[in-house]
Amino acid sequence: MASLSRQLYLAAYDISDDRRRIGALKLLRAYATGGQKSVHEVWLTEGDKRSVLADMAYILDDGDRFLLLRLDPRSQTRVIGRGQVAADPDYFYVG
């Protein structure tokens, strides 16, 4: 049985075509807790990760790029400049 624990990832894409870029954005926003333009923080189970990678492979074309990097949630956040606090809702529906 697969673990249902979620891991924190950084998902980023560089897609030139508007239609594919919108598809990637919609896909990642379903899992995102925060992000800027084409970079998002996502919490994924192993099953979610497999789904995101498979769906993104379907969206991407030659010349497009996608990065999914697992982050350590214990690490300290370092920022340059001024950011805004993420506006997370009180709950998330995953289903």
TrEMBL record:
<feature type="binding site">
    <location>
        <position position="14"/>
    </location>
    <ligand>
        <name>Mg(2+)</name>
    </ligand>
</feature>
<dbReference type="InterPro" id="IPR019199">
    <property type="entry name" value="Virulence_VapD/CRISPR_Cas2"/>
</dbReference>
<keyword id="KW-0051">Antiviral defense</keyword>
<keyword id="KW-0255">Endonuclease</keyword>
<comment type="subunit">
    <text>Homodimer, forms a heterotetramer with a Cas1 homodimer.</text>
</comment>
<keyword id="KW-0479">Metal-binding</keyword>
<dbReference type="Pfam" id="PF09827">
    <property type="entry name" value="CRISPR_Cas2"/>
</dbReference>
<keyword id="KW-0378">Hydrolase</keyword>
<keyword id="KW-0460">Magnesium</keyword>
<keyword id="KW-0540">Nuclease</keyword>
<comment type="similarity">
    <text>Belongs to the CRISPR-associated endoribonuclease Cas2 protein family.</text>
</comment>
<protein>
    <recommendedName>
        <fullName>CRISPR-associated endoribonuclease Cas2</fullName>
        <ecNumber>3.1.-.-</ecNumber>
    </recommendedName>
</protein>
<dbReference type="InterPro" id="IPR021127">
    <property type="entry name" value="CRISPR_associated_Cas2"/>
</dbReference>
<comment type="function">
    <text>CRISPR (clustered regularly interspaced short palindromic repeat), is an adaptive immune system that provides protection against mobile genetic elements (viruses, transposable elements and conjugative plasmids). CRISPR clusters contain sequences complementary to antecedent mobile elements and target invading nucleic acids. CRISPR clusters are transcribed and processed into CRISPR RNA (crRNA). Functions as a ssRNA-specific endoribonuclease. Involved in the integration of spacer DNA into the CRISPR cassette.</text>
</comment>
